[in-house]
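Appendix B, example 12.
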Amino acid sequence: MSSSNRPEAYFAPCPRGLEALLAQELRSFGALAPVVTAGGVGFSGNRETCYRANLWSRIASRVLWRVGEFEYRTEDDIYAAARALNWFELFDVNRTLRVYVTAQKSPVKSLEFVTLRVKDAVCDRFRDDVGRRPNVERADPDVRVHVFLEEKRGALYLDTSGEALFKRGWRMDAVEAPLRENLAAGIVMLSGWKPEQPLLDPMCGGATILCEAAAMARGRAPGLKRAFGFERLDGFNAGLWKQLREEASRPAQSMPKLALYGSDSDATALNVARRNLGAAGVERWVTLEASDILSRKAPAGSGVMIANPPYGERIGESEELARFYPKLGDALKKNFSGWNCYFFTADRRMEKLIRLQTSRRTPLYNGPIECRLYEFRVVAGSHRG
């Protein structure tokens, strides 16, 4: 990587709908001039900003360092642009490599072919300069090159994260279709929950929401238990990285007493939740119990509930959910008056069938699936129909 203090251009992708939260977060790491686009935030910063963003961002999926920009019409133009870069100044020929290509409105016929051409360009340039080519590795490459193509312009990036940042290094077991950690963290932030308030996830599954909330409240750096792509790039500043990690490892100052609660009606999910909370090192702050959301009582007079109910993707589930929502509305009214309840779902029928007044609906995406985060402020007698 280039000299430590010179600002470089970066792009941090994130789940769609969380871009404004990510821009705010990046500013706190020293990012300059963040620009929000659909699905991520562009910014400039020095090497310390890049390291901090990887270590501390709860929202970003990766941090990509822009190493080249070009205009193109054909695949040959893309090859020429990739071959023109001094790759040997960016990483060692002994590092393994993988190329990823994404495009929006690009005229190219095949992204697979472009991937191959860029890989050839990088390898050909290495052979010209050092007489050898790096090896390609699909499963766990040392270096990831990302190419992003628009209609007439393209950009080349080096991935400073390596594995996606939502892989915090603690998830032991996944229950079916788990929520990604960065999306869970974003939902907790959007709920406005404060560490001094009780928080309940009554359909907790593998406890992703609770792990993220506890880590947030304790001021834990989400990237402390993992390695990053920038450690394998040339110019890696090991001294600076050691200092940032030591800073992040210091125990939190006095924290409010946390009141975090999780429940699920599925015993297998609760076992997974226990293991995940333990691996994340936050089990002592979370109380788990086996219970059904329709019958469980509120653990406190007021608080924040966040739940991610099933979407009804399987045969028969859709009808089951249509019967479940009115019962859920009744249960919230009976057991959770005084609570702010948030439900993250792709099922748009929920808002109507729960028969409660929605106070806010935030569009978010779970991967390609368009979802809503519904807010219901439950007060006694808040029934609509």
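Residues 111-130 form the longest helix (20 residues). The first strand starts at residue 8 and ends at 13.
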